[in-house]
Amino acid sequence: MTGRDGGAPLVPIDPSPIVILVRPQLAENIGACARAMANGGLFHLRLVAPRDGWPQERAWRSASGADRILDAAQIHPDLAGATADLHRVFATCPRPRQVIKPVLTARGASAELHAILRRGLRCGLLFGPERAGLDSEDMARADALIRYPLNPEFSSLNLAQAVMIMAYEWWLTTDETPPHTLMTNATEVADKAELDNFLSHLIRELDACGFLRNAPKRPGMVRNLRHFFARGEVTQQELRTLHGVVTELASGRGTR
Amino acid sequence: MTGRDGGAPLVPIDPSPIVILVRPQLAENIGACARAMANGGLFHLRLVAPRDGWPQERAWRSASGADRILDAAQIHPDLAGATADLHRVFATCPRPRQVIKPVLTARGASAELHAILRRGLRCGLLFGPERAGLDSEDMARADALIRYPLNPEFSSLNLAQAVMIMAYEWWLTTDETPPHTLMTNATEVADKAELDNFLSHLIRELDACGFLRNAPKRPGMVRNLRHFFARGEVTQQELRTLHGVVTELASGRGTR
Hints:
- The structure is a homodimer of 256-residue chains.
- Chain A has helices at residues 27-40, 57-61, 67-71, 79-83, 106-118, 136-140, 159-173, 192-209, 218-229, 236-251; strands at residues 18-22, 44-48, 74-76, 88-92, 101-104, 123-127, 144-146, 180-183.
- Chain A is α/β, with parallel strands linked by helices.
- Chain A has two domains: 18-174, Alpha/beta knot (3-Layer(aba) Sandwich), CATH 3.40.1280.10; 192-255.
- In chain A, strands 3-2-1-6-4-7-5 form a seven-stranded parallel beta sheet.
- In chain A, α1 packs parallel to α7.
- The longest helix of chain A has 18 residues, at 192-209.
- The relative contact order of chain A is 0.13.
- Chains A and B meet through α1, β5, α5, α7 and β8 of A and α1, β5, α5, α7 and β8 of B.
């Protein structure tokens, strides 16, 4: 029941579900699972009867720095022991089975887990062995099954990938990143006056060089340029660059 | 520009973005990416200057059957060639860079890709090399960056995991699986009359054995049983089992 170094238990940052790998086969995969857990903010790992014993240095090597999770992993001889102190257990299950059980998407499961944990209950997420997945006895211990919506023609999922998707959805449930932003490099999105100022500069130079000399066509050409530069957000830094481009192009005029 | 066997191009099932692995290092990772692509319904792969050349049998061994994607993979010496026939290019980019660029979440990017592809345009998704990720020149070719919302304290993502998350979101954008259902095994959710029928059976036997003999407490005890069995959906098969349990328990009464 103790981690590799028998040290202090992990201090949970926030209550989060415990990832339980049931009879995992390859230590590399256990390490990759720990890495995926860290990516999504899942920090508690239990291993049920890992095939090759525990600890395995190969797990640490494939964890890319998620050592803390492996160091604190609990080992249990059977699933009953690994779930004994939990209140709710969800089992990932790629294939439909002959069972009567609630079935959740990864996103649905994450939302339910957040809600359950906020009530002070402890939750576990079961992942089966690489080859066969969870067996019927394992699944009978689960309150609900989690099935990821994925291509039914190709649903064979690597163990660490299965953990990654659940960890990702766990993180997303409380994430508020807007789906579309503009990343700016120490600069600001230009306002319309700054954009107009650049367009005036451009048009002045285009008048000077004669590009807009066709009077009937001039309003339409100016409008097209305005349309082009109004297509999305432009930053102040980009406008400075564009001012420079126009100035430099115009200054060389007649010298060629 | 041709696949391993120089054969016919993949027939696209639906328009989908092209996954472009830029200077990938390990063939195993390329295979794992193909597997993740198949999981999420992405079928078009291009490789820009794979470090160890192409084809590599190790890629096929780690693809778990996603051979069709590897067979049809296009190889390009540089990113300009790999993106030449595309109209929009999004680059996955875990770390903030000194660039001015729209930034999308994986979910936001997937929604935009679906919308762009429906207009008949061709799109690419760039993933950088395992160690360093995309460089500044690569990113300058992208219309937008994709940054997954993940634990900022541990954002180092395996290449195939990065492809998996994007493939998963690609699949989810058009998926309509309800977040919570009840999986039933050739049986139906019982209606309230069937549940009442079972409760009448149970209460009749509990009256017979004297469990409910305390008259003042009887209504509350019956109500508690009703509450318990009304907690969620019960199937007709489960009710048949429960009828059998009550009948068998009652039939043994007095024989011990």
